[in-house]
Amino acid sequence: MLAKIYRPSKTAMQSGQAATRRWILEFEPRSAMTPDPLMGWSSSADTTRQVKLTFDTREQAIDYARRHGIPHQVMEPKERKPVLKAYGDNFSAKRKEPWSH
Questions:
Q1: Secondary structure of residue 39 in the 3-state scheme
Q2: Going by C-beta distance under 8 Å and a sequence separation of 6 or more, which residues neighbour residue 40?
Q3: Domains of the chain by start residue, with CATH
Q4: 1 with 48: CB under 8 angstroms?
């Protein structure tokens, strides 16, 4: 039962970074999903698939896994490199392409 500790990435449907600040401990699935013969829904006998624990810091998540004897793997997040832009840059003489409409 291996757990992965990671920070979730920003979804495409949001512009803010609020949901990406917390660390998540999530278990790797032990068995594959199988379709239910009656309804066709996906099901699994693995109940750890439903467990998702959140922590404020990476160290808290690692400490929790160590205290409970859970083997874990930490996935470091890729940091964003914001590109600073200003509206006035659209009209700058240093533009590669001249401004036109």
A1: coil
A2: none
A3: 3-34+44-91 (3.30.160)
A4: yes
pLDDT tens-digit readout, 6-40: 999 888 787 777 778 899 999 998 888 889 888 88
Q: What is the C-alpha separation between 18 and 21, in angstroms, rounded?
A: 6
Q: Which two tokens stand for residue 58?
A: 């990476």
Please write the tens of the pLDDT for every residue from 41-88: 988 888 888 899 999 999 999 999 999 999 999 999 888 788 888 888
Q: What is the C-alpha to C-alpha distance for residues 69 and 82, in angstroms, rounded to an integer?
A: 39
Asked if residues 25 and 94 have their Cβ atoms less than 8 Å apart, the reply is no
